[in-house]
Design goal:
It is a single chain. This protein is 0% helix and 47% strand. It is mainly β. Strands 3, 4, 5, 6 and 7 form a 5-stranded antiparallel β-sheet that branches. Strands 14, 15, 16, 17 and 18 form a 5-stranded antiparallel β-sheet that branches. It is globular, with a radius of gyration of 19 Å.
Length: 231
């Protein structure tokens, strides 16, 4: 059986039955890739290798970022590095696809288990961390280990009730994202749902230079520009 290893600057890493392409942090100082090994049960176990060190082993691995990649067996992966290159985050599933449990992994440490985890976000100063988690029909953001308000899914074919962009303010003190509670959408700012609208425009909220939050929304034929000033 052919065994594969990833080479960096002439140094070959540990051998596996399959490896992904290389991925570098934005500053080029750190290096990661995904690797799998075959098991006696004709399954595959996956790890993330960061700077040559294997992380915990999972039945599937998922990371979502601005540079999505795809492994040959269909597992969806992407960037694992935070913008400053100091932190590594990704989702890992333990157990079979149908009823396995997902954990968000940050710097090699597993978070609590959920039905699903996705879209990790690290604050600009690298000290705060958020991601979206799913438990049954309940969707919520986990920020620094604490669950935010619950948005309930309308069913398997319904749109996700939480927008995928988790936005930290430039000073890292505030977090904003869009969510649907019932039939209408709002912006959740520092854990507090705001005014409800029929639609929050797709570009979502953004922070201005003075630290305030701004977004565009619609109710009926009326379009609103909403500005929120943090306390």
């Amino acid at each position: 059986m052919r065994r594969l290893g990833r080479s960096l600057d002439g140094e070959i890493g540990p051998e596996f039955d399959g490896v992904s392409g290389p991925h570098f942090s934005a500053d080029g100082q750190r290096f990661a890739y995904f690797a799998g090994r075959n098991t006696a049960e004709d399954a595959k176990k996956w790890v993330v290798i960061v700077d040559g060190v294997p992380g915990p082993e999972f039945d599937a691995i998922r990371a979502v970022g601005p540079l999505p990649l795809s492994l040959a067996d269909g597992h969806f992966v992407g960037t694992v590095f935070s913008a400053d290159g100091q932190h590594v985050t990704y989702g890992g599933r333990i157990g079979p696809e149908k009823d396995g449990r997902w954990h968000m992994v940050r710097d090699g440490v597993l978070g609590p288990d959920f039905d699903d985890v996705s879209y990790p976000a690290t604050s600009p100063d690298g000290k705060r961390f958020a991601y979206i988690a799913v438990q049954g029909r309940d969707h919520f953001v986990v920020l620094d280990g604490q669950r935010g308000p619950v948005a309930r899914s309308g069913g398997a074919d319904a749109p996700r009730p939480i927008g995928v962009a988790l936005l930290f303010s430039p000073d890292s003190r505030h977090l904003a994202y869009t969510a649907r509670f019932g039939k209408k959408w709002c912006v959740v700012f520092d854990g507090q749902p705001g005014r409800e609208f029929a639609e929050i425009y797709p570009n979502g909220p953004s922070f201005l230079q003075d630290g305030s939050l701004q977004y565009m929304a619609r109710n009926g034929d009326v379009i609103f520009r909403v500005t929120l000033a943090p306390e």
